[in-house]
Amino acid sequence: MSEQPIDREAMFDLVAAYALGVLPAAEAAPVAAFILADADAREEYNALRATANLVGTIAEEPVDSARSARMKERLMAHVRSDATAGARTRRPAPSSTVRSSAVWGTALAAAAAVVFALVSVIQNFTLSSELAEAQRKATVLQAEASAARQSAESAQRMLADVSSPDAQRFSVAYGTVIRRGSHVYLALTSLPPVARGHVYEAWTLAKGAKTVAPSVTFTPSGNGLTLVPLPEDADHLAAVALTVELEGGSKVPTTKPAFVQPLS
Questions:
Q1: Alpha helices (runs of H) in 164-259, residue ranges in sequence order
Q2: Of 226, 171, 170, nearest to 193 (Cα)?
Q3: What whole-number distance in Å separates Cα of residue 66 and Cα of residue 130?
Q4: Residue 139: its pLDDT value, please?
Q5: How far apart are CA 232 and CA 241, in angstroms?
Q6: CATH, range 168-262
Q7: CA angle at 198 for the pair 194 and 202, rounded to the nearest 5°
Q8: Is the pLDDT of residue 44 over 70?
Q9: Distance CA 249, CA 125 (A)
Q10: Which of 104, 111, 106 is nearest to 51 (CA)?
Q11: How far apart are CA 264 and CA 262, in angstroms?
Q12: Are the CB atoms for 79 and 108 separated by under 8 Å?
């Protein structure tokens, strides 16, 4: 290894890059040999490597603002102490003292900048992730609140309809068909249970139609009253019916209707 100051200074620059893990692989072998052969180089490498290891520590730990502050303070204390120690114990050639001290300080400052930048990135990523998660949860809660509000409004409207004195009521097997305005309901109080894999299916006959169309499927509520609102507009219907079908419903009735009730 050349003893010329400029060569040694250049090698110390490479030691810093080697310690921080940014040295190209092709240049690593001669720098490693220089570190093994030079006590000052080993000292500098060990100090810089300790600083570089803080980056790995930060990358592995969750980061909040308090931990970030602690890591920054720990790093700056490390930088200050190592810079002081380096200035006191390094033994470069006299002609390169100023340059070597500058390299030492610059390398540590670079390491500190890397750590601070990484902390900032992790914090920003964490805050962005937390914000995105909060926004997602808010969207879900808003959707749930909207659905609950609509459900409550529907229930209030249904109760008002079925209890209204001006509603039309038609007695059928197992209960009553109720029509009020454009709404129609099945209020069934004595539905027998269906076999496993089967459901009740409501059917509607549109005015002028010759065949019924499938409506909703349901099972008995088990509390004595099964109240089923039909989604179709009662103003367009001539009749409603009820059958038992396989679970999932059918496109056409496959069993004898429990009832077929005209709406006029």
A1: none
A2: 226
A3: 17
A4: 84
A5: 13
A6: 2.60.40
A7: 90
A8: yes
A9: 49
A10: 111
A11: 6
A12: yes
Give pTM, 2 decimals.
Answer: 0.50
- State the Cα–Cα distance between residues 262 and 199, nearest whole angstrom: 23
Domain ranges of the chain: 5-131, 168-262
Q: Residue 94 above 50 pLDDT?
A: no
Find tokens 């900048």 and name the residue.
113
Comparing CA positions, the residue from 165, 159, 244, 260 lying closest to residue 204 is 260
Q: With a cut of 50, say whether residue 158 has pLDDT above it.
A: yes
The DSSP 8-state label assigned to residue 195 in this structure reads P
Determine contact, residues 204/239, Cβ cutoff 8 Å: yes
pLDDT tier at 236 (50, 70, 90 boundaries)? very high
CB neighbour list of residue 1: distance below 8 Å, 6 or more residues apart:
7, 8, 11, 34, 37, 38
Residues found in the chain: 264
pLDDT at 117: 57
Q: Do residues 15 and 35 lie in contact, with contact meaning Cβ atoms separated by under 8 Å?
A: yes
Provide the residue type at 89 as one letter: T
pLDDT over threshold 50, residue 4: no
